[in-house]
Amino acid sequence: MGELEPWIDENFVRSIWYNMGENVNVKMIRDKFSGNAGYCFVDFASPAAASKALTLNGTLIPNSNRPFKLNWASGGGLADRSRDDRGPEYSIFVGDLGPEVNEFVLVQLFQNKYPSCKSAKIMSDPISGMSRGYGFVRFTSEEDQQKALSEMQGVYCGNRPMRISTATPKNKSGGPGGPGMGMPPGGGGPVGMYSMGAPPMGYYGAPQPMNQFTDPNNTTVFVGGLSGYVTEDELRSFFQGFGEITYVKIPPGKGCGFVQFVQRHAAEMAINQMQGYPIGNSRVRLSWGRSQNNSGPAGTPYRPAPPPPVYPSMGMPPQHPYGNFAPMK
């Protein structure tokens, strides 16, 4: 439930549904600074009861002059109760979100144009609870997903224009992705733009090359420069938005950690999007960790060959940082 007035609390929401014959659990979301964040999650006794409740969307809330604003929750509630029964889903990556944007606002923006928009998830800092400025929007229709990629690019959500890219590979087998194959372009904040074929840039601006020395079946991400105060659960929370995680390991006293994903494309996306991201009190450096299937200790970071030098094109002067030369007189 969204767009709730500041005075509405769990008891009021619970009483609304109780008077309609529904026994529900309510979780009100709190804003760290202002208190009520204006939305809550309602768990019903059955999927049928929840579906029936959704039909009230847009009608007036009893004892209030506000209409119901209802949609399926994005995770942890009824939206995930029947994962095995659902058809395929298609996600997009949404970046440059302002701190004023919550999941309800984001999903409503897309649902107003795309009926198959199912849910939205905004990644938040586990300590402060503040938005990290990016998230994911899910659709049940690939056609709507593709339309959203082009039609919603640069559209304002809150006070900022959104930066949008695909969050899942175009190839349905779930194989490795890459630039031009459905992977989101890397970049600061956290999505940036780059030309086709150019290496993606990380959050802190460092290029992260994917080269032939990397095991195509490897899904382990090495996280270096990690603060000693970061826990495995906290580290997991920073990466779980990119895909299903097999395990997270922080060796004691090493200043690093390892995150292993189920799918390769999720690990690639995490490396490109989280490079240089502040976790704890330091910015992390990411690279491929050694797969369990390779020789050597698990989690050992790769030492890939350096990228080849770039030479000026034949007949073209080399590019210098000095700017244009003054003409000779």
Automatic annotation (TrEMBL):
Segments for region (Disordered): 165-186, 288-317
Domain RRM: 1-75, 90-169, 219-291
Origin superkingdom: Eukaryota
Compositionally biased region (Gly residues): 174-186
GO biological process, any: mRNA splice site recognition
RNA-binding recorded as keyword: yes
GO molecular function: mRNA binding
Recorded GO CC terms: cytosol
UniProt keyword terms in alphabetical order: Repeat, RNA-binding
Classification via PANTHER family: TRNA SELENOCYSTEINE 1-ASSOCIATED PROTEIN 1-RELATED (PTHR47640:SF10), TRNA SELENOCYSTEINE 1-ASSOCIATED PROTEIN 1-RELATED-RELATED (PTHR47640)
Name of the protein this chain belongs to: RNA-binding domain-containing protein
Native species: Trematosphaeria pertusa
Upper classification of the organism: Eukaryota, Fungi, Dikarya, Ascomycota, Pezizomycotina
